[in-house]
Structure formats: C-alpha cells, structure tokens
Specification:
alpha+beta; Fumarylacetoacetate hydrolase, domain 2; 2 domains; eleven-stranded mixed β-sheet; five-stranded mixed β-sheet; 6 helices; 18 strands; about 15% helix; globular; metal ion binding; hydrolase
Length: about 280
C-alpha cells in the first residue's frame, strides 16, 4: 500500500493510492494509521496524485529522527576527503545521531537556505523506515515485523556548522532541512532486507547512484541494536544513511545554491523534489 498525507476537504488526511489516484482513509494523521490494527480505504472521492496537495507523510514527527552516519563505505571515503579528522577511522559499530524536525518539508516544498549562518549547504538522499509498533529487545531475525513502511528523506546538512561544532545535530536540524516523501510504502511491498536503487540529482545532474544493499548496517541490525535497552516507539523515523556523491565529496565541493532543484529517487517509493530557497 502507498500511503500519502494530503489535503482532503480542507483537512489533513491519510490516503491510499490506487491506479494513480489517492483515496481517503478514516485517519487524520499517519501516526494514527501506524498505530491502528487495520487501514480501511473507501475507494471513492479519489483525486489524481499529480493534482493533490501532498504533505510529508509524517509532517510533524513526535520525536527526533534517528539517523545513521557513514552507513555506506564509499560515503565514508568521500567524507574523509572533506574532513579527515572527523571521518578517517575504523567503524566497527554503527554511528547514530538525531535530527530535530520542527516540520518536515513536503514534496515540492522549499529547503531553507539559512544563508546567514551557513555557506556549505549539502544534500543526502536516504532511505528511511518507520517503526510500526513499540520495539524493545527485538532479535535481529524478528526486526522486519517492527517496520511499518519506507519513505525517502533528504538529510539536508550545513557542513560548516558540522565542522565548527564538531557534531552533527545542529548542522542537520535547522528548520526546513528535512524534505520527506512523497509517500510511505508499507513494508509488505518491499522485500526484506531492502535492496533498492537510490539516486539523487541536482539541477538534473546525477549526483548519487547506489543501492541500499550497500549499507554497512542494515535495518535489522539497527532495530536489534537500538532496541537493546531503548524502546523505539511506533512512528519513530530512522534514516539509514546516504551513499557517495554528496556535494562535499567532490574534488571541488558542489554545495547547494539558491534556486537549485534537488531530486531524490528510491526504487519502489518514488521521487522527492525540492528547491533551495532563493
């Protein structure tokens, strides 16, 4: 099932897509849908996807997004090229950090430039999964049962703030730094572990091209490790890291500029396009 958060009769509603049309469910929020035992769809009053006003699937996350750092080996290599002190080291364990999201940016929405405090704005196309039920002490072999679905998340980052503060939280948590969408594809439609092509483009130029199979630590590892003593609540968003090809990784860095178009694509999920604030 492909689930959208969209405008229906003047209100925010969760809808399911069929045949290029979005049909309303009974749920006013994706979090309610995630926590429910069943999602019923009334295949009436549909609206074409391209005509619908679509929001991020979870517009206002209840908790910070959990993120993985350097979870693709080649991204680790390019990150070390940009900042050897921070990234050139062995990685026997997953790197976790959090990302504050005041409100997620909708498909077609604006990435805030924050040009008063950053000059090194970067993109990171990532597969994100959403926890479907409270998870504590989950075994790796049972992890798939705790995933509600998958979406695309662009982990927009201010590289100069990351370097200055020697951590990632502030430089990744500015308002307008979390485009997400266009929908959530439920877990039953994606083979586990996910092996999906992942790409990003800036102004039509292909920047990232990889596959989620190249993750160092897959979703099963992440759920098992994090839930060992920490409860992951239903609705928690986990961003699984980005592959090589981000702006800082080029010999001459290609940071985002005002008016740039950024597209993130992941197989089976779709396309997330946003524009940098002019």
């Amino acid at each position: 099932m492909r689930l959208y958060t969209y405008l229906f009769n003047g209100e925010e509603r969760v809808g399911a897509e069929r045949g290029g049309y979005i049909y309303p469910t009974e749920f006013g929020s994706m979090l309610d849908a995630i926590r429910s035992d069943e999602i019923r769809v009334s295949y009436e009053n549909g609206i074409a996807v391209e005509k619908a006003e679509i929001y991020a699937p979870i517009p206002v996350p209840q908790r910070d997004v959990i993120c993985l750092g350097i979870n693709y080996a080649k991204h680790g290599a390019e990150a070390a090229q940009y900042n050897k002190e921070a990234f050139l080291r062995e990685q026997p364990f997953a790197i976790y950090f959090s990302k504050r999201v005041d409100r997620a940016v909708a498909p077609g929405g604006i990435i805030k430039a924050h040009s008063d405090i950053t000059e090194r704005l970067d993109y990171e196309c990532e597969l994100a999964f959403i926890i479907g039920k409270d998870a504590l002490d989950v075994k790796r072999e049972d992890a798939a049962e705790y995933i509600f679905g998958y979406t695309i998340l662009n982990d927009v980052s201010a590289r100069d703030l990351q370097t200055r503060h020697k951590q990632w939280y502030f430089g990744k948590s500015l308002d307008g730094f979390t485009p997400m969408g266009p929908c959530i594809v439920t877990a039953d439609e994606v083979a586990f572990p996910p092996k999906l092509d992942i790409k990003s483009y800036v102004n039509g130029e292909l920047r990232q091209s990889s596959n989620t199979d190249y993750m160092v630590f897959d979703p099963a590892h992440v759920i098992a490790e994090l839930s060992a003593g920490m409860t992951l609540r239903a609705g928690t968003i986990v961003a699984t890291g980005t592959p090589e090809g981000v702006g800082m990784g080029f010999d001459t860095p290609k940071f985002l500029k005002a008016g740039d178009s950024v597209v993130c694509e992941i197989e089976k999920i779709g396309r997330l396009e946003n524009t940098v604030e002019a």
